[in-house]
Structures are given as structure tokens and as C-alpha cells.
Write a structure and sequence with these properties.
Layout (H helix, E strand, L loop, with lengths): L4 H5 L4 E2 L1 H10 L4 H15 L2 E3 L14 E2 L4 E2 H10 L10 H14 L8 H8 L1
Antiparallel strand pairs: 1-2, 3-4
Length: 123
Amino acid sequence: MVLTIAQAAKAEVMEGNAVKAIILDTFADQPDIAHKMVIIANCESGLVHRTADGRFLPNSDGSGARGALQLMLSLHQQEANKQGLDLNLSTDEGYFAYIRYLVETQGFRPWAASRACWQPKIG
């Protein structure tokens, strides 16, 4: 069963299949990209988007990166606002819509730091 973003967001801890479902939904019209983004999310966060207390997964190195795809919120908030997207930590729709925007405008470059993990798996 594939969950929608709204269904997956109801889970207190968002990880594994719920994160995969959101990514697949976000890129439903681009299954190849969706598959690659699941692999990248696995490298970035182990497919964990939210912790047990409902917060976006913080970066293990202490940076401001958050969520399944370790988006640097401080770096991207202004551009997200220009695109009419909300990166507010209480929503997932804006987060994943902005991830799609990044892929459409920059490809996989925003995740270059984890390239050694995902590049061999996506070719």
C-alpha cells in the first residue's frame, strides 16, 4: 500500500515506508527520479524524516540540515518563500514540494555531500 503525504504525515515517527511513500508521491510522474530520491534519502537519513517527538530529523553532525533529505532550512527558506512553499517545521508538504523544486532546478547537486553513498546505486 502506498501512502499519500497526508496519510504518512499522521504518523508520529515518520520513517521507512512512510518516507518512501511520500517521496514516491512527490515524484509520482517521474518514477525514475522517485527511485533515485529514495536511495538518496536512505543515504542522507536512513529514511527517517521525523523523530519520535514529531520534529524533523536533525543532522547528526549538528548542522541546520533537517528531515529525510537533510535540507538546510536556513539556506533554502528564502527561495522556498519565493516559490510560495512553506518549510515550516510543522508541515511536510512544503518540505517535499521544495525537494521537488530543487531536483527540477539543480538535479542531485544539493546532495553532493553524500554522493559516495548514493552514486554507485543510481548510476
